[in-house]
Every structure is written in C-alpha cells, then in structure tokens.
Amino acid sequence: MSPGHAHSSKRTRIVLLVAVVVAALVTGLALLPDTFSADADARVTKVSTDGDVGKNLPVTKPEISCADLLQKDFGTLDDAATSVASATVVAKGGANAYEYCDVKGTVAPQIQFEQRLPTQTYRQRYLQEGCGGYCGMVGVSAQPAASTGCAPVTDGSFALGQDNQGHVSTSGTGGGSAEVWATNPQLKVDFGYRSEHAFATAAKAITKAFYGAEPTYSYYDGCSDGGRETLMEVQRYPGDFSAALVGAPAFNQTALNAMQEAYLSTIDFRADGSTILPASKLSTLHEAVIAKCADPKLNNDLIQDPATCAFDPASLKCADSKDSSSCLTAEQADVVRKAYAGVTAPDGTHLYTGGQPYGSEAAWEGLFVPKAGQGQSSVQLYGIGLGFLRWVGKWEADPTLKLDGALFTVDTFKAYQRDVSGIYDATDPDLTKFHEAGGRLIQWHGLTDPNIPPTGTRVYRQAMIDTMGQDKVDDFYRLYLFPGVNHCGGGDGPDSFDLLGKLIDWRETGKVPGAVIASKTSGGTGPGGPAGGQLGGGDTKASASSSAPTVEYTRPVHPYPQLVAYDGSGDKKDAANYRAYTPDKLPDDHYKWAGSFTSGYQEWCDTQDGRSMSCTRHKP
C-alpha cells in the first residue's frame, strides 16, 4: 500500500507497529576559530579564548533548583507532551568545564532527550545539536560541529540539548540493513521531520521553567543527518531558531540513501561476490589524482575545487594488461569511473546530484571498497542503503529485497520519492519565511566528502538563488567549502575551524561573516580535535585535563565562490599570507538529474490510533 504523490485530501496507511531497533551513522567534527581578516597583518595560528562573540548578554541564574524541574508539568505542550525523568546537578571539575543541571526526559511518544542547563554561567542562549546517520541515541557534545574554540559553547554560556529522533538504536554505528523501527509510521515521521521541532518546543519550555524566560537566541548546529535536520527546521519551522549552522547535509535523503549510497556499495563486486578494486590500490590512485589536480596556490597538496579536476583513471592503466600494485586493470578503472560519476540509470540519467569528489579516494576503504579479506556486506554504505531500501524508505517493509544493479532506474527512484520524500527530504529552496524572521544560515561542506558528495550542496545554493534571488540569499546565507576535508571532518585538509562563532556574531551584531581560519592539527586529547565533537552518540564533555592539539598550518576559507592563493611572501603555513580571489569563470551549479529542488512536496502526517497514518500536503 503506497501513497500517491499528488493530492490535497488526506489518506490513510495501515502499518503494524513493531519494536524499535536502529543503527546510527556517527558524525561529528572538531574545528578552530577565526580572527582573520583579509587585510589583517596579525598571524592567526592558535585558538582564541577571549569569548568575545555576539552580544554581551548578562549571566542569568536559575529561579528554581535543578530538582524542582521534576515537579513541573510539561505534559500539555502543543504536539510536544513532555515528561522529565531526571534532573541532577553535575559539578564543575574534571571532565566538566562548568556546573550544569543535567535534564533527561521524553517527548511523546518516545523522543528521548538530554539538556544541559548551566547553573552559574548561562547567558540566554540555547544550542540544539543534530544527530548523525539514522540516529537512535543521545550524545550531547561540549564541542559540537564547526565550533572549535567557540568560547560561548565551552564556557557554559549556552544551554545545550540533543534528542534521539524518536527511536533507540541497538545495532551500532553506520546504519544497518534491518531498521525495524521504521515499520512504525509515527517513528518514521518523528525521524523524518517532527522530532527536532517537538524537542525544540520542549527544550525552550524547560529552559523557561528553570531560568524564568525562554532563550533570547536559539541556534541549531548539525552535520550529516544533523545537517538535514537543520535544513528541515528552517524550511518547515522557520521560527524555531534564530540562526542555524548546517554541515554536509544528507538533505536529499531519498536519493542519497536509496540510490547513491546503495549503488556505490555494489560497484566494486563481481557477480560471484569477489572484489574488483582492492583497498591496497587506493593510495596509488589518490596520489595520482593529487599529482594531477592539486592547486599549487594552496601549498598543501590539496584540490581547491574538485570540479575543475580532469583526472582520467585510464592514466594508471596496467602495461600489457599485467596487474600490479602501482596500476589499474581496465576493470578496476571502470569501478573508479563509476564512483566519480555517481549513480546513473541505464539510460544515463543521474539519480543523484554528483559522484565521488576527486581527492576523496583514500577514504573509500570500508565505505564502499572493502578492507582486505572482507566482502560487500562489510562496507558501510551497504548497510545504510539496504536499510533504507528495505525499511526506512518503505511504508510496508520488504525484508527480502536484494541489493543489485537492477534497482537503479528512474522508475525505482520515483517510486521511493513518491513514498517518502515528503517526510524525509529537506530540499525546499524557498527560505523566505526564515529570512523574514531575521534568520541567518551558514552552510559548509568538505570538498573531499566521500559520504555525501559536496556537489549537492552547491546545487541547493543555486536553487535558493533561482527561487529567492541573489540579493535575498546573500542577505542571510553563506556557504563555505573546505579543501581536503572529508565527511564532517578528517581528511588531508585543515578541518578545525569555528563557524558557530561567526553565526552568532552575524545574528546578534550584524557582523557579516568573511574568511574563516581552518587549521590542520595533530595530537591533543578531548573533543576539540578532528573526529571529536558532535558524533551523534556517546557523551562528550569538555575536560580540564584535555591537551590542545598542535597546529601544523592554517589557511583562510572564504565564502563560496571565492578561492585563496598564496600572496608570494611570508610563511607558507600561515593563513595571514593568503589572499582571496574570485575565479574568472564562475562554475555553473545547475545540475541535470532525475529529481529537483522545489517547494510543495512536503507532507504533514498524524497518527490517530497508533496504527494508521494520515498525511496531507497542507500544513496543519
């Protein structure tokens, strides 16, 4: 039983409810701050800790005790009936940089959450953190994505919160092939679009009960699926947050999970299950790509714009068809071409916006190229793709569906899009209401992201411009693209930076964001380094005993489409010696594929009896 695509009246789906099980793809990032100006003479090579970000809001103390929150009734909140299960004071010291009231509870029916409400340092700001993969866990981070060195986060100025998107994971990270939770229609809706809004409603009410007033400013920060959640909020609920930071978003989720990721998990395997391109050859491939396409103006062997790279895998063809570790067979070169092209239908139609970016090759191992001795079921994208095709992307599960090349057609894509894009996808380019409410949005993406190719982010920006006009978009939106950075962090490039501080300044003081300093670091402990921070699961706290990483070099990154170049003098490792420039020929970020980024596709759903789901295209 599949719902039709075009309709204005309500319709009913009957779906049996089952136990909840989900897997989560961990995402996160640890980053450094920016005090750089293109005209500045001062060198910027370390984290700023002066805390001078945004308005100088006064410290607000609680009006009730932490334990008193247990006596408050939050059960009548509109579409967010909430119960508080625990409220305990966590003392400053050791792993905790400040004292806070730790609140845990549930928004009906089963959106589990945690809030951290500072008791001595709160300055009227709330930060809601996104969750990665299919989520299913709560892990509030003391260093959320793209905020390394952002003092208001680390010094206790913010109240922090995160939720599990309405279901519980028991199957680990990365997404699994048996997402049984998704047979429950309400849990589909909560994961799709409702959980973040419902929790935001609850979090503000709890904050008001504790401090006597709702936050003056509310922010959202998410990467990967957390990035999708961010865009979902500003598109569907433009009044929930004052400003939002969106990283590497899985916003085109139906096409990403059902088509792109599922497809990539098939391209490196023969019919008998044997591997075509071994992981041992990825370093040779990556070195060849960098040799061909690295931008000498960056002085760090990184590709500044992968879209301009013209690498041909045939350049590594084995001589006389003799296979060796330093070359590619014709069959292996074909796998590489398929990876760069992305998923296409038999007629050549692209089923997603872009393929693997040049420079991402070293990160393919374990993602869709198996590690030595392992098979298809071991690669991360196999579990994510099959989990969507069988469970998350269907109102009635198909546990026996097989993942093979016959699935990747325009008809299959359209069928999944008709079924679930209305609740999962966050591709609406019309953010007029968010803009009119004074909202500010900063989006960022690593240019060598192998999980969610950055092309889609550029295409979405272009769709916003086509819909709203360049001037309006420039008034509230900026995009930053980071050379050599993988999915939400990691990679060869500088992946430590602070965009959250820029967002706060822009929203609260009107300071338009310019260059951000990105640092390449090594060593250090605690959540402040690459791969730390917002991971979508696991408790991460600032630690008084954490050691700062060593900064190897810094580079400025300017809002897209500006690039940077060494100015010819001074330390090549220092961001202060690089200038911004605009390419003579700007890229055309329109992209022809089977879908589109338009408005009006969203569905709004409600469960009346716990067993049936009624959905409409009209927002209630």
Automatic annotation (TrEMBL):
What domain of life?
A: Bacteria
| Ranges annotated as spanning the membrane | none
Sorted keywords for this record are: Calcium, Disulfide bond, Hydrolase, Metal-binding, Serine esterase, Signal
Give yes or no: UniProt keyword Hydrolase: yes
Q: What GO molecular function terms would the record report?
A: hydrolase activity
The annotated region (Disordered) lies at 516-554
Q: Where is the composition biased (Gly residues)?
A: 523-539
Family under the similarity heading: Belongs to the tannase family.
Protein's name according to its UniProt entry: Tannase/feruloyl esterase family alpha/beta hydrolase
Q: Which organism is it from?
A: Streptomyces hokutonensis
